């Protein structure tokens, strides 16, 4: 359970991987993960391939990230969602705010 982050070697893609539960316990760690993203305007990918659970606080964290990063990034996408996670995102209309695959 937890979070890992990495920046691609070319600096164009910044990926945050969420393992296990994406909930309030990750608030500080999630915020810290994207705090020093730099000035390269990378594409941000939130990779949920190992995420088993997501609650409303996770949705709030995604919105806060979008608000805080604003034009510091080229885009924000949510990738590799399990079916139940994708359903939560669609019901919450996050497919209108983020690229989801």
Question: What can you tell me about this protein's structure?
Answer:
This protein has about 100 residues and is α/β, with parallel strands linked by helices. Helix content is about 30%, strand content about 35%. Strands 1-2-3-4-5 form a five-stranded mixed beta sheet, with helices on both faces. The chain is globular, with a radius of gyration of 12 Å. The chain starts with a strand and ends with a strand.
Features:
101 residues; alpha/beta; 3 helices
Q: Report the end-to-end length measured between terminal Cα atoms.
A: 22 Å
The class by helix and strand makeup works out as alpha/beta
Number of strands: 5
Sheet-strand content, in percent, reads 25-35%
Give a quick account of the main beta sheet: strands, pairing sense, barrel closure: 5 strands, mixed
Low-confidence runs? none
Instruction: Determine the fraction of residues in helical runs and give it as a percent range.
Output: 25-40%
Q: Strand arrangement, largest sheet?
A: 1-2-3-4-5
Summed up, what is this model?
By secondary structure, the chain is of the alpha/beta class. About 30% of the residues lie in helices and about 35% in strands.
List the helices and strands and how they pair.
Elements: E1 2-7, E2 13-22, H1 27-35, E3 43-54, H2 56-69, E4 75-79, H3 83-91, E5 99-100
Parallel strand pairs: 2-3, 3-4, 4-5
Antiparallel strand pairs: 1-2
């Amino acid at each position: 359970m937890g979070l890992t982050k990495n920046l691609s070697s070319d600096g164009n893609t910044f990926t945050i991987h969420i393992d296990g539960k994406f909930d309030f316990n990750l608030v500080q760690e999630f915020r810290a993960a994207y705090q020093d993203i730099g000035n390269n305007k990378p594409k941000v990918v939130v990779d949920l391939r190992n995420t088993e659970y997501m609650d409303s606080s996770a949705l709030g964290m995604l919105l806060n990230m979008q608000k805080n990063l604003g034009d510091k990034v080229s885009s924000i996408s949510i990738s590799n969602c399990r079916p139940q996670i994708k359903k939560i995102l669609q019901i919450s209309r996050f497919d209108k705010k983020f690229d989801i695959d």
